[in-house]
Amino acid sequence: MQDGSFTGFEVVVHPPGIAEIRFNRPERLNGMTHSLKRDLIETLVQVQMDDGVRVVLFTGTGRAFSAGDDLKGYVTAEAEENARVPPLPAGHATPIGTYDGLRTVSQQVNLTIRNLDKLSVAAIGGLAIQTGFSLTLACDFRIASESARMGSATLRFGLLPDEGGQFLLVQHLGVAKTMDFLMRKKIIGASEALELGLVHEVVPDSDLPARALELAIELANGPQVSMRLLKRSIYSAAQLTFEQSLDEIAAKTAISDHHPDAKEGGAAFREKREAKFNRWLDR
Fold first, then answer.
1. Which of these, 238, 233, 268, 264, lies nearest to 250 by C-alpha position?
2. Contact between 199 and 139 (Cβ < 8 Å)
3. Do 236 and 251 meet the contact criterion of CB atoms below 8 Å apart?
4. What's the rounded Cα separation, in Å, for the pair 244 and 78?
5. Which pLDDT does position 78 carry in this prediction?
6. What pTM was computed for the model?
7. E-strand spans in 83-160?
8. Strands across the sheet containing 201-203
9. 254 Cβ partners below 8 Å, 6+ apart?
10. What angle do CA 39, 202, 71 make, to 5 degrees?
11. 71, 84, 163, 216 - which has most CB atoms within 10 Å?
12. pLDDT at residue number 166
């Protein structure tokens, strides 16, 4: 995968196979539009299919990771110069247009992130609100800066967390805490997010870029086939019975146990050295 500029974000590739998706409209607090989301979905399809990419890292520029949908920019979003896709024929002007737009574009972003076999990291600096917040929840790892603030707060506008935020919050918090979080329109700081389990780590603002990349490199150097299978198994386990999850991981183990990475892991253990995984990717 190559570096590139898209609608509202750019892609920068770091070794060993980290695709950083950097939202780059700081003057709009990295607000999202239809054009941005459609470019993002296609970029994530490329990430999924490119063996050269092992981990995807989401970052923002300026005072926000993403402050959610750019409500002012949505009307003219289809005319954005850098859009890689043609404008949509209809928007949210009718009930069916709203339904189709959500199912086809807005919800598809988080679904595509969650469906990636490859691991994802969100580096949350500044504001992560509504769509921006739910995007971080769809990722596998979240690191926040000390000044980060995050939440849904859609009820402040009489709106719903229609991009799947309610489901993702229930997965992270459970029903009771999600009810409290959404109904009371909470926007919380990084320390409270850490206490609730919404982020994995909080670091000083200046350390966020380096720490997020450090984590991405750590994940990228792990045995990619087993990690991708395990990611799918963990998310499946949240919705399966115990017996179903046992069968599911047994089927995946039939793949991982016979992969060259497993042989390398065993040899490295016997020889008391660090394993060198992913030689299949070097080819």
1. 233
2. no
3. no
4. 45
5. 46
6. 0.94
7. 119-124, 127-129, 141-145, 149-151
8. 4-6, 9-14, 18-23, 55-60, 119-124, 141-145, 201-203
9. none
10. 35
11. 163
12. 97
Using DSSP's 3-state secondary structure scheme, residue 33 falls into coil
Residues lower than pLDDT 50 in the chain: 77-78
Lookup result for tokens 């289809």: 78
SS3 content of the chain, % helix, strand, coil (to 5): 50, 15, 30
- Can you tell me the distance from the alpha carbon of 177 to that of 175, in angstroms, rounded to the nearest whole number? 6
Res 71: pLDDT: 75
pLDDT value, residue 153: 86
Contact 58, 123 (CB under 8 A): yes
Cis omega before residue 16 (within 30°)? yes
| Res 61: pLDDT | 97
Beta bridge partners of 124: 144
| DSSP run (H or E) holding 13 | strand 9-14
- 179, two tokens: 């009810």
Rounded (10°) CA dihedral 77, 79, 85, 88: 70
pLDDT 10s digits, 158-198: 999 999 999 999 999 999 999 999 999 999 999 999 999 99
Q: Can you tell me the distance from the alpha carbon of 17 to that of 36, in angstroms, rounded to the nearest whole number?
A: 23
Q: Could you give the domains of the chain?
A: 4-220 (3.90.226.10), 224-282 (1.10.12.10)
The whole-angstrom separation of Cα 163 and Cα 226 is: 30
Give the pLDDT of residue 89: 65
Whose tokens are 């920068």? That residue is 12
